[in-house]
Amino acid sequence: MPNHSINAPAGFLAAGDHIGIKKQKKDLALILSEKPAAAAGCFTQNTVKAAPVQYDQSIILSGKKVRGIIVNSGNANACTGEQGLKDVKSAAGAFASLAGIEADEILVCSTGVIGVNLPMDILLPGIGRVFAQLSKSEAAGEDAAQGIMTTDTFAKTAYEEITVEGAVVKLAGMAKGSGMIHPNMATLLAFITTDAAISAELLQKAFTASVRDSFNMISVDRDTSTNDTALILANGMAGNTPIETEGEDFEKFSAALYRINRKLAIDMARDGEGAGKLMEVNVRGARSDADARLIARSVTSSNLFKAALFGSDANWGRVLCSMGYSGGVFDPDHVSVNFRGAADSIDVLKDGAPIAFDEERAKTILTEKEISVDIQLADGDFAATAWGCDLTYDYVKINGDYRS
Amino acid sequence: MPNHSINAPAGFLAAGDHIGIKKQKKDLALILSEKPAAAAGCFTQNTVKAAPVQYDQSIILSGKKVRGIIVNSGNANACTGEQGLKDVKSAAGAFASLAGIEADEILVCSTGVIGVNLPMDILLPGIGRVFAQLSKSEAAGEDAAQGIMTTDTFAKTAYEEITVEGAVVKLAGMAKGSGMIHPNMATLLAFITTDAAISAELLQKAFTASVRDSFNMISVDRDTSTNDTALILANGMAGNTPIETEGEDFEKFSAALYRINRKLAIDMARDGEGAGKLMEVNVRGARSDADARLIARSVTSSNLFKAALFGSDANWGRVLCSMGYSGGVFDPDHVSVNFRGAADSIDVLKDGAPIAFDEERAKTILTEKEISVDIQLADGDFAATAWGCDLTYDYVKINGDYRS
Fold first, then answer.
1. What is the ipTM of this complex?
2. What are phi and psi of B118, to 5 degrees?
3. Do the domain assignments include residue B389?
């Protein structure tokens, strides 16, 4: 089976390893493009932005092409003041000098504990050691995906191939999620590589649109991180006719990019800290796109409904309640709600009126690992889908003593 | 010791008992004023408003004087359609006919499961039985406070006495909270009686202001209920010179009312579902009142910080993170944070820079049952205080199977 890792697109190398920021698990990942790549990014809207977020934003805004990304886990380099920004630049400089390029061709991301300065005495030699491991091998790509994980229980990756004017274009993604997940513009960390030839402007346009419908529609705990960053590099080495105008090729590329981001986003929701179940909320018939989004996200974010899901309790009143405080406009008297699993589904509310339903059958559905909540507002033509997970004892356990 | 229950102010009677809506615990409370009382109320801003909320709002808006309140627990009468409103009117009518008054002199509140119609075959005879128990005794007042509880572990009451132009004016409050607590205009259920003579207009003004700084500043789980209702009845039987203009008497009354509401609100946060600790967040130095409120409430609402509190983990990065996504404006480089218990306090962030602090000492502070997070923004002159609780295994347990 061919390599489907982050280094699968032409010209991308990757590596990941344990360098000692964390006790045992891999904590560093590097991505390098053989040629300068158009770059686009989406970043946290949190007022408190980690140093690497501030740094990456300035590079993406400059429109400069990019050659690589360095990502560490175990330390978020957030709330670290001036020293934090200096450390980002030192890390970028170390990677750049090894690659023989400029420091501002390297993007930097961090995830982990907030408020502790990066251990540069560990990071700088670690970059050197992992740089030596950069390769096109699938194993190296998998190492990179593991190097960005924190409390994730599995590595999240996605892969797509499309044909653009006869040329095969590859897209690969890797991401980490788990906790502090309620993205606003991006999710904790997601990286996409593609060998597509595409203008930076269209790359940002396609990326922003797909992030809006993928990472920005998931929630684990309603906590928007200080470090949320999604980046895409497109190095053009697929040799396709460059995508420089909107049209069929752009649509095809955008659709593939959305599939990548959607898969990564759903995996993040599925692997939310302590999560045992994936929740998909489909809102249909909304008065506006904004209403549909607000309502869908609110349901996935309700602690009460998330706890009910954990208990396989068909407590649809909590769905209605969370819709009601979402800020989205709807008429409660028009709402219908259905709980759906892989094998069965059950109506619990129809046109605003409760339905006497079989509790045992509902419980069986809600015991499944993937549950859809289908909400028909019957108010208009807009729709949105959001993803979340249940609230479990393990979420509390993981976060009750994260730092020790 | 004199009676400090809800029926302590002159002319108020109360009763509470188990009538069978819940399996065993008390589930009905009645309050009756011997004379018509000025009434004021604050209600949930949830789009989905329970039938009793819709009913009470229309009565309060009418400006009509009120004689009594009927409260059931065990069933929220929310998402119950036309039948829900009919049931509210039937309940009010039953109480009114026993008291020999009009149905629209009775307010109705419900709390409990959403989406199930009230069991009127149980409620109507129950009202008759509890009506016969109405009295001025402290025991009856305590029964009423218990009759409104759901998952609350203790009854929440408050009492104040003030002197207005030589006349003793009494105020008494009772409330229930626990889960689905993130009030917007009021909290789940709170009832204040007073024998003060005060105009309905000033009563509403004082009540709204105090609710804003008390019930609207607590959060258990960021879920704003469909049933939030806070009501106050003032029957004038203290015989004080009526408070009809703003001035010293109004200020004195407002201050006492705020003390009542604040005490009830803090008790609700302390008794949040599964909670083991009370969190008080004091924001100082904000650019505006709105910024101070948004930031204080966001910290009390963060699942991640709530879980850290459960684990006595001084994870101040989560405080900063939740401030950052609050919507409140501040400069992260100016922020100082201190964790404070009864015996000790510790600085963890000063002017935006982390402080190397003694982790063991911080853990000892955070192990206390009441913890203050003092946040100095150094950006302006506005302040706000919010209250919350930790996120525990028991919260998940209680809400994982609430209905069974």
1. 0.71
2. -60, 140
3. yes
pLDDT, tens digit, 9 for 90 and up, residues A300-313: 988 889 989 999 99
Residue A271 in tokens: 């692997």
**Closest in B180, B332, B401 to A313, CB measured:** B401
CA neighbor of B280 nearest in space, from B225, B230, B341: B341
What does the block give as tokens for A108?
Answer: 């930097």
Question: Are both A203 and A341 inside the same structural domain?
Answer: no
Highest-pLDDT range among A224-233, A321-330, B41-50: A321-330
Q: Do B308 and A393 touch (CB under 8 A)?
A: no
CA distances from B224 to B269, B273, B289, B295 (A): 14, 14, 22, 18
Angstroms from B180 CA to nearest CA on chain A? 7
∠ CA B245-B250-B253 to the nearest 5 degrees? 150
Query: Are A247 and A333 in the same domain?
Result: no
SS3 assignment, position B168: strand
- The helix or strand, by DSSP H or E, that contains position A382, with its residue range, turns out to be strand A382-389
Residue A307 three-state SS = helix
Q: How far apart are CA B203 and CA B207, in angstroms?
A: 6
Identify the three-state secondary structure at position A251.
helix
Do A290 and A249 share a structural domain?
A: no
- Across the range B351-378, mean pLDDT stands at 93
Q: Domain range holding B339?
A: 278-400
- Looking up residue A112, the CATH number of its domain turns out to be 3.60.70.12
CA dihedral A252, A254, A259, A264 (to 10 degrees): 150
DSSP class of residue B159?
E
Which of A47, A313, A395 is the closest to B402 by Cβ? A313
State how many domains chain B has: 2
Structural Rg of chain A based on CA atoms: 22
Contact call for residues A115 and B317 (beta carbons, < 8 A): yes
| Closest Cα in chain B, distance from residue A127 (Å) | 26
- pLDDT band (50, 70, 90) for residue B7: very high
Q: B270, B288, B312 — which closes off a domain?
A: B270
B79, B117, B397 ranked by CB distance to A317: nearest: B79
Contact B282, B374 (CB under 8 A): yes
Asked whether residue A266 falls in the same domain as residue A134, the answer is: yes
Active site residues of A: 187
- Short-list A305, A289, A297, A279, CA closest to A379: A289
Q: pLDDT tens, A327-359?
A: 899 998 899 999 999 999 999 999 988 888 999
Q: Inter-chain contact B321–A224, Cβ cutoff 8 Å?
A: yes
**Are residues A352 and A250 located together in one domain of the fold?**
no
- The dihedral region occupied by B81, where left means phi > 0, alpha psi between -120 and 50, and beta the remainder, is left
Cα torsion through B286, B289, B295, B296, rounded to 10: 100
Average pLDDT over residues B303-315: 90
| pLDDT the model gives residue B179 | 58
Distance in angstroms (rounded) separating the CA atoms of residues B104 and B1: 36
Residue A185 confidence (pLDDT) above 60:
no
**Preferred mutation among B80, B303, B316 to probe A, highest tally of A CBs within 10 A:** B303
B391 contacts chain A (CB < 8 A): yes
For chain B positions 193-222, those within 8 Å of chain A (CB to CB) are 221-222
Tell me which chain B residues have a C-beta less than 8 angstroms from the C-beta of A277.
none
